[in-house]
Each structure stands twice: as structure tokens, then as C-alpha cells.
Amino acid sequence: AKEQGKSRSVRYSADMDDRAAEDARLGADLLQAMLSQDQLFLLYQPVVRLPHGDIAGVEALIRWRHPERGLVSPVEFIPVAERNGMIVQLGDWVLREACRQMAEWRRLHGDGAPSRVGVNVSARQLREPAFARTVADVLAETGLRPDDLLVEITETAVFDDGPAVETVAAIQALGVAIALDDFGTGHSSLGLLRTCPVDVLKVDKLFVEEVTGTAEQAAIATSLAQIAQALGLRAVAEGVETPAQAMRLYQMGYRLAQGYHFSRPLSAEDLGGLLAAEGRDPDTWEPPALAG
Ligand code: C2E
Ligand code: MG
Ligand code: MG
Ligand code: MG
Asked: Which ranges carry the EAL domain (predicted)?
């Protein structure tokens, strides 16, 4: 038992060293990526209206093309950036770049531009006292209206944290909409609706996957649509992958959805092409997902 305990503690600290070393490596590369011009970029995934699938908004999603590792998922490097604090600078860049792109679509497509761009914001960013001010500055610099922007936060980011909730309230007071992302997967999803100002619930893919199952399986997605409606919030179904799911969600009362069924995240250029196509021929334009 003594031997076992010893080897376990060795293995444990080796894991810790591994993670620290991997964090340090990725962190150094990420710093390099932030300084270089072309490794980091944003993709934009349409958020569509049901049932027709026309584009209501887009969500900005960061990508990193690492010179040796290839495409690194944000699921991998965002936590590293959160741990080493780089997320503050990285998050500022994402916000600026997404707003700059949105302003360009407005110039190019007018009313045909997406009505909002969603930007994911980390817990760590909400803990920066100046963050609401940064949002106001970026809107002013890019000339966007506050309601062109949607800030996506997760439940864990604001859970049990007074200052973060105050920052969220300050951002909302600017006229920027707030979405609770991955709704239903955190620790205090419903409790949070009483303390944190929210305009949009993004219902997690986990619940969307079950909408075509039994009534019991679909019950959470059904209830979340009702809760959103009762509270005057908009609900977005995340991770919609099939026509059957889209149909069921519409029947349940969902009017906004996002997922591979409608579109994968696209480059700014490809998204611009989609907007141009939609604007050119509104009567015959077929949403990409329904076409394919
Ligand atoms: P999220 O904000 O919940 O974004 C939705 C994720 O689901 C995206 O993954 C998107 O590509 C993926 N997705 C969309 N539709 C489908 C579908 O039909 N099926 C499946 N399986 N997946 C779908 P992605 O881009 O890998 O981002 C993962 C997470 O990384 C995001 O989850 C968000 O939490 C975080 N993230 C991404 N960009 C940023 C950023 O700029 N800042 C911060 N702080 N976090 C970010
Ligand atoms: Mg999101
Ligand atoms: Mg989400
Ligand atoms: Mg998610």
C-alpha cells in the first residue's frame, strides 16, 4: 500500500509537470501567434431563424493555425490562455476583430448584414474591472451600434461571483445583449437567471441532441423553451445537426438555431458570399442547409 501510494503521488506530480510544461509550451507559442499576423483568425457561424433558415446573426469563433501542430481547437488553447492570463489580451483582439468585421458587413450589405455578432467572453475577462469600458471603446472605434453586439458568457463565468455579474450588468447597460452560453450544463443555471442580467439563452447541444427522442428525453429542451418564453428571453438551440431536430425544435417554440445542419463556422469571406447571395435574390434563395 505504501508502494502504491508513493507511485500514485509520483504519477500525480508527473501529470502536473506534464500539464505545466504543455501549458508553458502552448503559452509561449500563443504569445508568438498573437504577435504574428496570420496564425489567429475568426470564423463566423450563422445563427438562423426557424423555420426558413435565414441568417439572423453570427457567432465569432477563434481559430489558431499553429505552424507545426496545424489547427488547434479553442477547447485546447482557450483554457491555457485563461490560466496564464493571456486571455485578456486575446479576448480584446477577438472583440475588436469581430466588431471590425461586423462594421464591414454593415457597410457592404446594409440591412442584409447579420443583425448581431456574438463574441465569447471568458470568466477571466469579466473579472477585469475595465472590461465594460473596453466594450464601449471598441463599439466607438468601430462605429457599431450596441445592439449589433451580443456578448456570450457561460454560467461558470458568473457563478457565485459578484464583480463578474456587475460587469455583465454594465455591458448590458450599454445596450449590448447578453447570452448565457451552454445553458443547462452549469451548476446553477436557473438560479443565475435571478441574479445575472440575460437576454438570450443558448440551449446546449446536449439537450438539442435529445429532441427527437422520447417525450422524457425531449423534456429539458421543451421546458427550457417555455422558461425562456415566460421570462421574455430569446432561446437559441445550439448544435442542430439534422432536419428532424430543426423541425422538432420549431414545434417546441424555438425560433433561433445554430448548428452544422444550417452551416459550419465560415471564413469572413465565405460568410460575406452567403450574405450577398441572400440579398441578391430573397425569393428564390435557398438556405444552404436545406439545399444540402
Ligand atoms: P461555444 O461558444 O459553445 O461555441 C459553439 C461550438 O460548437 C463551436 O465550437 C462550434 O464550432 C461548435 N458547433 C456548432 N454547431 C455544431 C454542431 O452542429 N455540432 C457540433 N458537434 N458542434 C457544433 P468551437 O469553435 O470549437 O469552439 C468551442 C468553444 O471554445 C466555444 O463553445 C467557446 O466556449 C470557446 N471559444 C471559441 N472561440 C472563443 C473566443 O473567441 N473566446 C473565448 N473566450 N472562447 C472561445
Ligand atoms: Mg458561444
Ligand atoms: Mg455554446
Ligand atoms: Mg458549447
From this structure: 23-279
Phi then psi dihedrals of residue 69, to 5 deg? -85, -10
User: Measured in angstroms, how far is the CA atom of residue 181 from the centroid of ligand 4?
Assistant: 7
CA of 55 to the centre of ligand 3 (A): 18
> Which of the 8 DSSP states describes residue 189?
H
Query: CB count, 10 Å around CB of 193?
Result: 18
The pLDDT value given to residue 118: 98
Q: Is 97 in the pocket of ligand 1 (CB under 6 A)?
A: no
- Best of 42, 83, 94, 120 to mutate for ligand 1, by most ligand atoms within 8 A of CB? 120
**Cα angle for residues 278, 119, 57 (degrees, 5° grid):** 20
| Predicted structure pTM score | 0.91
- For residues 282 and 161, give the distance between their C-alpha atoms in angstroms, rounded to a whole number: 46
Atom of ligand 1 nearest to the CA of 202: 3
Q: Is 122 in the pocket of ligand 1 (CB under 6 A)?
A: yes
- How does pLDDT run across 95-147, given as a tens digit for each residue? 999 999 999 999 999 999 999 999 999 999 999 999 999 999 999 999 999 99
- Which ligand 1 atom is the nearest neighbour of the CA of 74? 30
The Cβ of residue 46 has, within 10 Å, a number of other Cβ atoms equal to 27
Is 223:191 a contact under the CB 8 Å cutoff? no
C-beta of 239 in contact with ligand 1 (< 6 A): yes
What does the block give as the cell for 15?
A: 501529470
Q: What does each C-alpha distance from 205 to 78, 145, 287 come to in angstroms?
A: 20, 30, 21
Ligand 2: centre distance to CA 68 (Å): 27
Question: ipTM > 0.90?
Answer: yes
Q: How confident is the model at residue 226 (pLDDT cuts 50, 70, 90)?
A: very high
DSSP class of 112: G
The reported pLDDT for the residue numbered 9 is 53
